[in-house]
Design a protein that fits this description.
The protein has 361 residues and is α/β, with parallel strands linked by helices. It has 12 helices and 12 strands. The longest helix is centred in the middle third of the chain and has 26 residues, at 183-208.
Length: 361
């Protein structure tokens, strides 16, 4: 059996998202995948691509894609879900590795470290077309397009945020000190990273665009135009004034270069920057992440209302459909809201379909 998703279903996904991006869809976007479908063939003896396995280069790109094809063949796509490959399996901020940082996934999660410690004045990142990780991701993208011919959307890898990438090479502590001691060097390095970031984005997109059904990233939000979930986790630790000086200009520039820039607002420490973020005219939406140990998504209606009042779209990090429905009810409707992908066993299909119907899907 092959992946259970037909061209007509892709057309429906594209119509739904066109209305969502245009703020015309009067319900939330709700993707759900059922697990446990019979794939009709043996499981390949290849590890599933993940942060724990991404550094294993002993398997070809084609073998990696064959294993992903098997995984996708075990899924049933309900609501607004579509077959999708998340290249965030190479870790958050893979651009650092493109620029020479060392990957360490010995814990099962990917972390990046500089090859050597240097002061910010000596750090000048360079483009290397032969970088092993850049070539690996390109090879996987090509193999995916050859195998699926547009049936599966391949997402952009998690390139990372400009200041977060800078922190990989400078260290977070030193970068924060450099905001005071070497502000011009911070701005210089941020600009260099920004230019390289968009170079990598365009280069990988050029491989995907001829066949890929659209654009996406680790958020799994579909777009028919260039889009990305922008971020700066470092800004959890800085003041609004520092955010406006060191972070916001780069985000504004990225939002101008991308047709649809979203922002990953990660944790209560970033709420202080929300008003400033919403001043970025080209910013299309905000993904609110309550963070570990904090109340879950339905407990933050004031955040969603502020984002919605600015005319922006919202991605909700719901753990299940019941949480998403609570958010929708608190907002008085689902217009402009996008849930995250939820997984459920195939045995729960009837219940999932009832919940989807209740959400207007």
């Amino acid at each position: 059996m092959a992946i259970d998703f037909k061209p007509g279903q892709w057309e429906e996904v594209k119509r739904t998202y066109d209305r969502w991006w245009s703020r015309e869809l009067d319900r939330p976007v709700v993707p759900v995948e059922l697990t446990g479908r019979e794939p009709g063939r043996p499981k390949p003896d290849v590890p599933l691509l993940s942060q724990a396995t991404c550094t294993d280069l002993s398997f070809t790109a084609e073998e990696i894609i064959d294993r992903l094809d098997y995984e996708l063949s075990t899924r049933v796509f309900l609501g607004d879900a579509f077959p999708y490959v998340n290249l965030a399996a190479f870790g958050p901020g893979i651009m650092a590795a493109f620029c020479g940082a060392r990957i360490d996934n010995s814990t099962g999660s990917v972390w990046f470290f500089p090859q050597e410690e240097r002061p910010i004045t000596d750090i000048h990142l360079q483009y290397d077309p032969d970088n092993v990780w850049l070539r690996r991701i390109k090879d996987i993208c090509r193999a995916a397009l050859d195998r699926w011919q547009g049936q599966v959307l391949v997402g952009m890898p998690d390139l990372g945020g400009a200041l977060d990438i800078a922190a990989t090479f400078v260290s977070t502590d030193q970068l924060l000190l450099n905001f005071y001691d070497h502000p011009d060097e911070v701005k210089r390095l941020t600009e260099e990273i920004h230019d390289l970031w968009h170079h990598f984005y365009r280069e990988i997109s050029a491989i995907l665009e001829p066949v890929n059904p659209g654009y996406s990233d680790w958020s799994a939000i579909f777009s028919d135009r260039p889009s990305y979930m922008l971020q700066c986790d470092l800004c959890y630790m800085i003041s609004p004034a520092m955010f406006d000086t060191f972070v916001k200009p780069e985000l504004e520039s990225s939002c101008r270069k991308l047709d649809r820039g979203f922002y990953h607002l990660d944790g209560p420490g970033q709420i202080a920057h929300l008003d400033s973020l919403l001043e970025i005219e080209e910013l299309q939406g905000v993904q609110w992440v309550p963070g570990a140990g904090n109340p879950t998504c339905e407990a933050w209606p004031e955040i969603y209302r502020k984002i919605a009042a600015s005319g922006r779209l919202i991605q909700v990090l719901n753990e299940d459909l019941a949480q998403l429905r609570q958010v929708v009810d608190s907002m008085g409707g689902g217009r402009g809201i996008h849930g995250v992908r939820n997984l459920a066993p195939i045995e729960e299909e009837s219940d999932v379909r009832r919940q989807l119907e209740a959400l207007g899907c």
